[in-house]
Amino acid sequence: ERLSWLLSEKIQTPKALHQAFRLNEDLLRKGMTSDDLRLRQARVAVSLNMMSDADAHLKVLQTTQADNAEVWYLSSLCSNAARNRDATIHGLRRSLQCTKKLPGAYVELARLADEETPDDYQPEALLTRMMKECDSAEARRLRAEYYLEKGRRDEAMNDIWIALEQAPADETLNSLLVRSLPSWQDAGTNSEAQTQNSNQSTEAQLKRAMQHFEKLVETEPSNASVRLSHAAVCWKAGQRKAAIATLETGIQKNVHAFQQHEALIDYLISAGETAKARRVLDSIPSGALPRDEYSYSLGRILMEEEKWPEAIKSLEQAIAFSRGDS
Q1: Is 50 helix (H, G, I), strand (E, B) or coil?
Q2: How many angstroms separate the first and last alpha carbons of the chain?
Q3: What angle do CA 99, 170, 78 make, to 5 degrees?
Q4: CA dist 88 → 73, 81, 91, 156, 183 (Å)
């Protein structure tokens, strides 16, 4: 059971989750039917999109752990996968009746609201209630994602910054911050439609984000995720040299985090430094990058070198090797 927990809660790769699922099934068949194990198996099954397996365990847990919000939230995900809207809404609303709330339930209910939804379950009412009942960095992040979906970027950015005050090193939050930031090009175009204040706001957001990631880089100089985020913000701010420099330093600090190499190659090509991009690609050990990513990077370099037949061949290989999520 300890090995299963490590695989599903700590490692969490697809392979590890499949291994955890098989271990849990064996444990359950052998009579180890604790609620914790059953809930963990339901959680793993949902992660693997094995909804019928998850639903079977969750139906048991709805009786034995009726006050567990996660049980009802996961049940709603199973119902949603089955395209059962009424059951989905029931699971989410039942989750909100539990003692300890899950922020995700409020946001999912907000997404499902329509004109016939009662006032108490309209989006603004739900999101206000979420902040009163379970304000947290996660809740702020989820509300920010909802606001971004609705084109309410200023409100989203406010929530992101508040959340980062609580969890400055949270990888998901930092990734959301990078995705949410406008680029300096957005501030400098469409001047007739954009006010001077909005331009200044964009510049202020970029400056604040750069300062945020600079502090994180100082604290965690070998953290590849932090380096990638810092570089992305520098690039958005129009500071291309700084973006390239932070990745070059990151590679020196953590030479085996090859996603930094890949991002650096992308930036170097965009900056017109094709020869340097090729040197970075050549420095990557064989097999360190997935074949589709390697072929794509090589194809881009070959295009810049105007080696068209080789470029086409490499890009075709990238497509052939691509995985489902590429």
Answers
A1: coil
A2: 34
A3: 50
A4: 9, 9, 5, 26, 38
